[in-house]
Amino acid sequence: MPRCPARIGLAILAAALGLVLAWGPAPAADKAPVVVGAVLPMTGAVAAYGQMAWNGVKLAHQMRPTVNGRPVKLVLADNKSDNVEAANAASRLIKKEGALAILGPATSGRALAVVPLCEAAKRPMISPSATNPLVTQGKRYAFRVCFIDPFQGAKAAEFAYQTLGARKAALIIDVAQDYCVGLGGFFMKAFKKLGGKVVAVTKCATGDQDFSAQLGTVMSSGADLLYLPNYYTEDALVARQAKELGLELPILSGDGAHAPELIKIGGRSVEGLMFTALFNPVKPANPTAAKFFELYARARQKGELGEDMTAFHALGADTYLVLLNAVKRSRTSNGPNVRAALAATKDFPGVSGTINIGPDGNAVKSVTVLKVQDGRFAYVTTMNP
Amino acid sequence: MDAAQLTQQMINGLTLGSLYALIAIGYTMVYGILRLINFAHGDVLMVGCYFAWFGAVQFGLPWWVALMGSMALTAALGVLIDQGAYRPLRQAPRISALITAIGVSFFLENLGLVVFGGRPKAFARPEMFNHIYQWGEVRVLSLSIWVPILTAIILAGLILFIHRTRMGMAMRALSRDLVTVQLMGIDPNRIIAATFALGSALAAAGGVLWAMKYPQINPLMGVLPGLKAFVAAVLGGIGNVTGAMLGGLLLGMAEIMLVALLPELAGYRDALAFVMLIGILIFRPTGIMGEELPE
Fold first, then answer.
1. Using CA atoms, how far apart are residues B58 and B77, in angstroms rounded to an integer?
2. Beta carbons of A202 and B263 less than 8 Å apart
3. DSSP letters along A284-334, please?
4. In this predicted structure, which of A30-34, A230-234, A321-325, B22-26 has the lowest mean pLDDT?
5. Considering only CB atoms, which chain A residues are within 8 Å of B258?
6. B-contacting residues of A 225-254, CB under 8 Å?
7. How many CB atoms lie within 10 A of CB A237?
8. Would you say the C-alpha torsion A279, A284, A287, A291 has a positive or negative sign?
9. Checking DSSP bridges between strand B138-141 and strand B216-217, what pairing results, if any?
10. From the list A200, A202, A265, which residue is nearest B215 (CB)?
11. Which of A36, A13, A16 is nearest to A24 (CA)?
């Protein structure tokens, strides 16, 4: 029962006014921002990836702050490097913030947790660096701007067998991560196919700090290569403890090693450690990349960024740029149209190189091999698909 | 596995076990007196590591000064937590205090995430702990030898303290009967504060040694050592200091041997600790050194 008729009158007036504004050539409504959500690990075991990717996204946002004449609003949600948190964060961004698309997550396990939500809500997800094939397999709304692990594992095996001359490989696999189990498996398969032998496979879990027992097994196996398909913290600790135990093996790792923490935690023990990376941070590939490199260098000088550029900065930027390009081409901001435009991405000049989205939502890219030299990441070689 | 490797793994187990033991002592002391499982203990350890990190890395103090400073600050933190969180609940049911402890644990973790950031920080290892000794095929980091020695010294000092000083006597009395002790003119809050200070300082020491051995620290680093040390304390008989030491050594040795002897089960390493916990709770709930429960 309304108590105050004057208030009703006011409400009707306001509603009428709103109606007029909505019907009219309302510039206010058109200028409503396009909301882009980011679900990234800002804390937890793989916080470095999330923070680096987020810095990349922000720089890319500086490069292209608007789309179709509307400003873009970035909303970040921390997935705490945890699968459940990732799903919660994505659902909050889609339902409460009305995000048009999700950038992230950075790792395969979290991406697998977010994909079903994006499929159901018909909002595209673009991961910068989730390399496990299952992330996009059979999915309509899942995309990524990096290569996938069957390819990375095969190239790593090729590099190990042909360039390093390894014949007997030992592995320590983090079985708590979809990424590590997948990449380790693909490497072993390819390495055996080339004629190599896998002499030891031992396991660990994210957050483990003591690898002395696993390294003991590796030592007695007579391996001539240690392959670590894990993330940077585990890689650094394994490398340190290997040196302490006197294990002088070449160590090869995957794109998960590409974080400054590898060198900070590993110190001298990671000198010479090699890994297959998603991107070559030494030379820009096109004018977009050159612009990004310049912005990055400026932010680095001003002290806004505390580390050298890695693949995660570049790929974070690319998720944003690829999405914006698709929104522009679709001229709308509804999920299914943007999805269709994303799937049709062809020869897009991204920060990390030319991006073509394949039929299953995966980017086709070359593998860069980097190594740690004098406390920095140095370029070794590029391996093409 | 040959003899050299077995020796190597035994030393690894001894080092890891000593670290668990050092942390377990803090659990057991607080439980002995308050019957409270202080689940924030692992996170107190984490804060202790950051104190030492700030001292050693940011201010360039020598490692032992940083360690002493960290122990003092962490002791103060322990007292503060007791005063702020547990003391108001002294008369409340035990479950309330337990849930508060879990709350304090989450609080410290998230405070750490906000204040220190979520990315791991590298922890420097002093030169004296960085030598590698080699006997035949056995290679040992000097830190791995220092850890058990330091643990033994600390434990010996602690036992002397508990059995030879007035404060220690008061602690023992308090663990028997809180009400009667008050009648004897002892202020239980002072003794409890001292217990928290001592336990937290030991957590800081354990944490700093932990961080030297596994040289990275992050705001969630205390969770797993905290849980493992809790298991160790229960294994040894919670409330019993020597038991905590034994439980820690047993757990460390068992974990290393599982991974060394059955590499395909290495992923179940953390599960082993909890299987051991369940086992001891079923078959000997009072732990190895625990006294039989009176009827």
1. 20
2. yes
3. --SHHHHHHHHHHHHHHHTTS--S---HHHHHHHHHHHHHHHHHHHHTS--
4. A30-34
5. 213
6. 233, 236-237, 240, 244-246
7. 24
8. positive
9. unpaired
10. A265
11. A16
- A328 burial (CB, 10 Å; 0-12 / 13-18 / 19+) is middle
Q: State the CB neighbour count (10 A cutoff) for residue B160.
A: 11
pLDDT band at A12 (very low <50, low <70, confident <90, very high): low
A5 band by pLDDT with thresholds 50, 70 and 90: low
β-bridge mates for residue A349, sequence order: A354
B2 within a domain of the structure (yes/no): no
Q: What is the pLDDT of residue B35?
A: 87
Q: Which parts of chain B sit beneath pLDDT 50?
A: 294-295
**Number of structural domains, chain B?**
1
Q: Which of A47, A212, A217 is facing B263, going by the closest CB pair?
A: A217
Residues A181, A150 contacting (CB under 8 angstroms): no
pLDDT at A23: 46
- pLDDT tens-digit profile of A266-319? 999 999 999 999 888 878 889 999 999 999 999 999 988 888 888 899 999 999
Domain coverage including residue B88:
23-220
Query: Nearest CA to CA, how far is B219 from chain A (Å)?
Result: 8
Closest CA to B48 of B20, B26, B19, B78: B78
Q: What's the CA dihedral at B234, B238, B244, B247 to 10 degrees?
A: -20
| pLDDT tens string A17-56 | 444 444 444 444 567 899 999 999 988 878 888 999 999 9
* Main-chain dihedrals φ then ψ at residue A75, nearest 5 degrees: -125, 125
**Mutate: best of B125, B138, B216, partner A, most A CBs <10 A:** B216
pLDDT at site B132:
82
Question: Does B119 contact A51 at a Cβ distance shorter than 8 Å?
Answer: yes
pLDDT by residue (tens digit) across A211-229? 988 998 898 899 999 999 9
Residue from B187, B192, B193 nearest B79 by CA = B193
Q: For chain A, give the percent of residues with pLDDT over 90.
A: 64
Query: What's the N-to-C CA distance of chain B in angstroms?
Result: 48
pTM of the model: 0.79
The pLDDT value given to residue A141: 94
Nearest residue to B47 (alpha-carbon basis) of B72, B64, B24, B21: B72
Alpha helices in A136-259 (DSSP H): 149-158, 178-193, 212-220, 232-244
B74 domain residue, yes or no: yes
Give the number of C-alpha atoms closer than 13 A to the C-alpha of residue A212, restricted to the C-beta side. 27
- The runs of H, that is alpha helices, within chain A are 5-23, 27-30, 47-63, 83-95, 108-121, 149-158, 178-193, 212-220, 232-244, 260-266, 287-301, 311-330, 335-343
Provide the total of helices (H) and of strands (E) in chain B, helices listed first.
11, 4
Q: Is residue B294 part of a domain?
A: no
Position B216 in a domain: yes
pLDDT tens, A138-193? 999 999 999 889 999 999 999 999 999 999 999 999 998 889 999 999 999 999 99
What span, in angstroms and rounded, lies between the C-alpha atoms of A66 and A70?
Answer: 5
Q: Is the dihedral of CA B172, B175, B176, B179 positive or negative?
A: positive
For residue A48, the chain B residue with the least C-alpha distance is: B119
Of A60, A34, A87, whose CA–CA distance to A316 is shortest? Answer: A60
Which domains, ranges and CATH numbers included, belong to chain A?
31-147+283-366 (3.40.50.2300), 150-277 (3.40.50.2300)
Both tokens of residue A375? 């406390």
